[in-house]
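Our consortium's second objective concerns turning raw sequence data into structural hypotheses that experimental partners can test. To show how far this objective has progressed, the report includes one record in full. It was chosen at random from the queue rather than selected for favorable results. The single chain below, 530 residues long, was entered without modification.
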Amino acid sequence: MISNKKMLLFIPFAASIGAVTQASAAGNEPGNKSRQENKKRLNIVYIMSDDHSYQTISCYDNRYIETPNIDRIASEGIRFTNSFVANSISGPSRACMLTGKFSHKNGMTTNATRFDSTQVTFPKLLQNEGYQTAIFGKWHLKSEPSGFNRWEVLVGQGQYYDPIFITPKGRVTYKGYSTNVITDLSINWLEKERDTTKPFCLVIHHKAPHRNWMSDTTELNLFEDVNFPIPDTFYDNYEGRPAAAAQEMRIADDKVMNFATDLKLLSPDIASGYKDNMAFALRRLDPRQRQLWDSTYNKIIREFIATKPTGKELAEWKFQRYMRDYLKCIRSVDNNIGRVLDYLKEKGLLENTIVIYTSDQGFYMGEHGWFDKRFMYEESFRTPLVMRMPDGAKDLKKRGDVPQFVQNIDYAPTILELAGVSIPREIQGESMVPLLKGKTPSDWRKSVYYHYFEYPAEHAVRRHYGVRDSRYKLIHFYGHDIDKWELYDLQTDPKELVNQYDNLLYTKVKERMHKELKRLMTKYEDTQEL
């Protein structure tokens, strides 16, 4: 039951979206579209994982893992090769996706912020136009979901095993592995709960592969015999980049990548006490699952104690353990995406459904010696984005790669245009629909803007903002203990190891990039540092 307070919050918003969507309603009351009209309206399935790097999707990079089901989306549709986020951290990235606005505009600047769920979001606009909307999985915005006819979301970051969900009726625990459970709930809604006479937008948000990378117990032994290539920047010394040097994201740092929580070395001979959240997670396993867990990790513990790696050997051992556990989670994500695609195919829904897969941001797979995200450097700034085009939507004829710059602020206006719903003027993103049709508007962006706000905080990444074009990247780290500019030539230095900001040979480039940065900050009304 909705409280009176929540009803009061919702009523003025309902009035506001009625104004912005009046033109698209074309005289029809919300939800009163004819059955024939509804059949023509595209369904949307939006799948997002947490911290899934483009390096670990085989249609982008096949060094580490094969992801046939994500690749299937790309092969039957579009792969975006220059997809970026506006703020590389979970909660703010989700807010950008929902609102189509940068963090400074939607108010969700850090994970500590509470998302204002009364503001305009694409699910609310779809709902107002007769769409059924549902979300299952990770929410991570502190406020209660709004704009969804049906929702069940994880508590905070969620648990990998027997996850607890917040629902409109209270909390409920489901037996099983989170990625499977989220998919089960989603398919059940499609099969048994939705009104088949109406178009739908289903949002599936996986917890995986978020830290601390705990796999389905059926897949615990995957990759255990694989040694992954060490990135050639793994031993980066961060010369000329004080913000990169000051971070706390190094795999080699025992205080950062924890032996018990991250590496699962639950032995008093290795870790001084078990972390509470790890003990809580393992208590959620049934006896058979715990037996499988112990048979895998007890062997690893024995081998670690026997070899006692130190220095470089220890750093690279930790990298291999991180990669194996992370990729086990990816395998489950890909398997479950396959389940969704197979269901849609079996039920004849691919004819009229667009399927989108992305991550809330990129992630480091040992590059610069790191895990995590946050920086505007490529591995965390970039995010995978693939879309499967509906079989019956002949105007969405583009297939293959889209090289144009897109950002996660573009998802909301794109979904709205695909659904035939007017895009509010306050949305800062651009609809990607022309790109889906194989066209590039003459005024399509030639550069992308970024702003990260969360400092002081975990991982100690300093606040920064910047601009990237097809060749260069300009970043300003600011506030507290730093005021430093960085400039990279991505053509000659794609791994961003050499800061060219003070190089006189780049004076004209620097001037041009400063001008472009100021233009974008003015355009997006992020003027606090101008």
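The partners drew two points from this record. The radius of gyration is 23 Å. Residues 449-523 form a domain with the Arylsulfatase, C-terminal domain fold (CATH 3.30.1120.10). Both points have been shared with the crystallography group to help prioritize constructs.
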